């Protein structure tokens, strides 16, 4: 078997494989690359030594059986016998479901999660979006401090467990999306700098030195990230990738890394004959991310839309701290603007940032499905002091309104695991750092962050305490009981409506018509023949929906169709979906 590694600054490279060593040779055709052959098969342990340094894992390791600091293991990608025939499932018409493997079940493994996929098929979602799976120190964590960007976290089950999960999802008709982190590497277990200039001091990010996308040596670093992305889609038959915090990808080159990546993914899609897509997380408010490369955009297929979330959250909760400040002055107006224009910040002044922010979205060129809309995500729940979900503070009626706005709105909907039954469990920030100094620094930093906002230290869960992760695991005894069952039935009904009513997947943002009353706290919008009304106030509201016959498609509380005056009487904290007969 041939081994290869990029180490442009090394004088010598040694392969340690299955208890033997051999010197690698410089590749005459590729600058900075070293190659050599050794006997190896699936599972064979190996590593590389740079000059006279320690044996380190392969930067392109497909498996780390003993964690990020251990030896790599060979993976024969053809060894797994796929069961499901899969033609792919694209993003238009999708309903996504964000899932964290380590807390979706108490076992915290891919195999255990796969056993619960039937629930998602019955719910009606189309794609499971897995939070990051790359190896990180310890057993439990969010996954955003991963290293070894080509491998699967071993406590989750490793490479074959991911294939079994994807296979089962495809058998049930579910696509699978993976959250990948290209903007930084974890602070522990990252050995890449020993091999080459994977990082650069030319730019800085919240996590330190930036990933090298534009300094000397960046061609190979970009190829490393691009190759990792394509490997997930090809070797594990994934349907899409979610790209974490792309605003932290510092790249001054004429061809941005994201443009290069989107071109490579589109080419792979053509080669495989099935749809593939990239979804960005971005706070830039920049439509160029999701504008086609032919129109001088970066060519990504979609992006998360935090503006919709922030407007919805402030309308539901009244919170006004931090970035909610910009939305809290007139939350229903903010919500109406996002429903019709995509972005709230489209060049307007942001008091939170102290400057103008964003750029208008051209509704004639960008389809609504390219923006993901959501009421909750891992970030928006887990980054709260106590990881409390909306269900901890809102009535079932307001939760139903949030679901109606998300699942009948113009954007591609995304749910956060457990949201569909108003889970009573929190989802808190937890880590399992094996370095005591790093663990203590994270613990102190978390408490210091929230102390600045008035929280007592003892009220902030200790990220390193195993109980913090345990509290965050879903309780699977909840979904079919009491008020949880009613909320779950409502989500199923709305998702079924979205699939059945063509107007609810119409990609034309310009066709969305919205009316609202800030003081009375109601909002209504129309998409083709479908009308949706929500009353966030406690008192009944009289909502003008226009004259003409109407038929109720779904209602949280019993309602009568509008009379000849066109007024809908909607109970407090309730919602309804209607259509013309």
Automatic annotation (TrEMBL):
Its EC number is 3.2.1.141. Pathway: Glycan biosynthesis; trehalose biosynthesis. The keyword Hydrolase applies. It is found in: Cytoplasm. The keyword Flavoprotein does not apply. Substrate binds at residues 242-247, 306-310, 378-383. The record marks 379 as: Transition state stabilizer. It is an enzyme of class 3 (hydrolase). The active site is at 244 (nucleophile), 281 (proton donor). Residues 47-70, 458-477 are annotated as: Disordered. Pfam families: Alpha-amylase, DUF3459. One of its GO terms (molecular function) is 4-alpha-D-(1->4)-alpha-D-glucanotrehalose trehalohydrolase activity. Keywords: Carbohydrate metabolism, Cytoplasm, Glycosidase, Hydrolase. It catalyses: hydrolysis of (1->4)-alpha-D-glucosidic linkage in 4-alpha-D-[(1->4)-alpha-D-glucanosyl]n trehalose to yield trehalose and (1->4)-alpha-D-glucan. GO terms for biological process: trehalose biosynthetic process. Its main location: cytoplasm. Residues 98-448 form the Glycosyl hydrolase family 13 catalytic domain. GO terms for cellular component: cytoplasm. Belongs to the glycosyl hydrolase 13 family. PANTHER family: 1,4-ALPHA-GLUCAN-BRANCHING ENZYME, MALTO-OLIGOSYLTREHALOSE TREHALOHYDROLASE. This is Malto-oligosyltrehalose trehalohydrolase. The gene is treZ.
């Amino acid at each position: 078997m041939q081994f290869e590694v990029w180490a442009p600054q090394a004088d010598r490279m040694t392969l340690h494989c299955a208890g033997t060593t051999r010197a690698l040779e410089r590749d005459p055709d590729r600058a900075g690359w070293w190659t050599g052959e050794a006997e190896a098969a699936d599972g064979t342990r190996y590593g590389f030594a740079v000059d006279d340094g320690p044996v380190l894992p392969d930067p392109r390791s497909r498996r780390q059986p003993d964690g990020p600091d251990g030896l790599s293991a060979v993976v024969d990608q053809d060894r797994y016998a796929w069961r499901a025939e899969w033609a792919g499932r694209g993003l238009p018409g999708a309903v996504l479901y964000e899932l964290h493997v380590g807390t979706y079940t108490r076992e915290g493994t891919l195999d255990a999660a796969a056993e619960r996929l039937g629930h998602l098929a019955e719910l009606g979602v189309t794609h499971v979006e897995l939070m990051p799976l790359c190896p990180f120190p310890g057993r439990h964590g969010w996954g955003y401090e991963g290293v070894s960007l080509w491998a699967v976290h071993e406590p989750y089950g490793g490479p074959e467990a991911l294939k079994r999960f994807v296979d089962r999802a495809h058998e049930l008709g579910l696509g699978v999306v993976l959250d990948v982190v290209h903007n930084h590497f974890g602070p522990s277990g990252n050995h890449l700098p020993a091999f080459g200039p994977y990082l650069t001091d030319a730019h800085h990010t919240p996590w330190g030195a930036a990933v090298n996308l534009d300094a000397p040596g960046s061609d190979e670093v970009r190829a490393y990230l691009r190759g990792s992305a394509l490997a997930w889609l090809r070797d594990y038959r994934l349907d899409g990738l979610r790209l974490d915090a792309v605003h932290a990808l510092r790249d001054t080159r004429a061809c941005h890394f994201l443009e290069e990546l989107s071109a490579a993914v589109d080419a792979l899609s053509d080669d495989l004959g099935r749809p593939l897509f990239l979804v960005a997380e971005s706070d830039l408010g920049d439509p160029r991310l999701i504008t086609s490369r032919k129109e001088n955009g970066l060519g990504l297929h979609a992006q998360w839309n935090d503006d919709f979330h922030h407007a919805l959250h402030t309308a539901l909760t009244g919170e006004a701290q931090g970035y909610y400040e910009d939305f809290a002055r007139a939350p229903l107006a903010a919500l109406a603007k996002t429903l019709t224009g995509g972005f709230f910040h489209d060049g307007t002044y942001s008091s939170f940032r102290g400057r103008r922010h964003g750029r208008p979205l051209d509704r004639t060129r960008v389809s609504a499905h390219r923006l993901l809309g959501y009421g909750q995500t891992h970030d928006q729940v887990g980054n709260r002091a106590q990881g409390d979900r909306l269900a901890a503070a809102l009535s079932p009626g307001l939760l139903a309104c949030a679901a109606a706005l998300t699942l009948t709105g113009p954007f591609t909907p995304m749910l956060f695991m457990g949201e569909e039954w108003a889970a009573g469990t929190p989802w808190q920030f937890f880590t399992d750092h094996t370095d005591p100094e790093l663990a203590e620094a994270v613990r102190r930093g978390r408490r210091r962050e929230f102390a600045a906002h008035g929280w007592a230290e003892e009220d902030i869960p200790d990220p390193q305490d195993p109980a913090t992760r345990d509290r965050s695991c879903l309780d699977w005894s909840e979904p079919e009981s009491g008020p949880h069952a009613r909320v779950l039935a409502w989500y199923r009904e709305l998702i079924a409506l979205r699939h059945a009513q063509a107007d609810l997947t119409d990609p034309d943002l310009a066709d969305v018509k919205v009316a609202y009353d800030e003081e009375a706290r109601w909002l209504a919008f129309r998409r083709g023949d479908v009308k949706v009304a929500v009353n966030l106030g406690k008192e009944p509201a009289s909502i003008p929906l226009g004259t003409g016959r109407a038929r109720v498609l779904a209602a949280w509380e019993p309602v009568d169709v509008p009379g000849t005056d066109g007024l809908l009487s909607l109970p407090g904290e309730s919602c309804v979906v209607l259509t013309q007969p």
